[in-house]
Amino acid sequence: xxxxxxxxxxxxxxxxxxxxxxxxxxxxxxxxxxxxxxxxxxxxxxxxxxxxxxxxxxxxxxxxxxxxxxxxxxxxxxxxxxxxxxxxxxxxxxxxxxxxxxxxxxxxxxxxxxxxxxxxxxxxxxxxxxxxxxxxxxxxxxxxxxxxxxxxxxxxxxxxxxxxxxxxxxxxxxxxxxxxxxxxxxxxxxxxxxxxxxxxxxxxxxxxxxxxxxxxxxxxxxxxxxxxxxxxxxxxxxxxxxxxxxxxxxxxxxxxxxxxxxxxxxxxxxxxxxxxxxxxxxx
Length: 283
Prior knowledge:
The chain is α/β, with parallel strands linked by helices. It has one domain (about 1-280): Rossmann fold. About 35% of the residues lie in helices and about 20% in strands. The protein has helices at about 45-50, 80-95, 105-115, 135-145, 150-155, 155-160, 165-175, 180, 200-210, 240-250, 265-270, 270-280; strands spanning about 1-5, 10-15, 20, 25-30, 30-35, 60, 100-105, 120-130, 230-235, 255-260. The strands form two sheets. An eight-stranded mixed β-sheet has the order 1-2-6-5-7-8-9-10, with helices on both faces. The chain has a two-stranded antiparallel ribbon with strand order 3-4. α2 packs across α3 (about 105-115). The longest helix has 14 residues, at about 80-95. It is globular, with a radius of gyration of 18 Å. The model has no long low-confidence stretch (mean pLDDT about 95).
């Protein structure tokens, strides 16, 4: 499905019923936005992992502007600010009131930024393997220097400089970096390297050569008013767990859970434990 909002067209998909029967009664299920990472990927690698949540939530998957099945446009518009405003426009388009935000990696940055700007619209906030400021970039370079292979260090230059030229180069990057993103490498379908993922080099290049270098929302996180769960992977290289710790410290009464046997792709390394933590938090 497609929503023509603001100056773009956003692709979205819905999983789970809005109304469910409980005996003779009908219950309205909460709605959760599943916010994908990247930037430059799409929502499809999240579906296999998060689908079981549709038993207790109605899930809204969507692709950020310029990514996946959403419309392409001027690459200068592929910004964090527009991703936040597009999400708010999608909420209004769907006629929703308060929503649950579940954002992973870059999607967590979008979720944090939305929760700061529109706290009245968020019932629960769940951020997974993310960061609240640009310091995660330099820390990732340090971790890669310590743990990475020579091939991984070489191919990561394209990421740091925002100089991917083709989708094939970007897919190769995720394939080569697989052991850095996932401890277990259980499933390629949960990775941006999957052949099912539609990649966008413009989106990732604009982010890493531009706005992510100045990204900083840490000092605004006190504005978040919803119950918050912050999740990290102990072996995450790109958004090290120390950044989840500072997010949890900055948001009033936030809960922090670190998965000891996970890298960045917690949904691939410890999928059942991840869903259990989210389900328990939302009860």
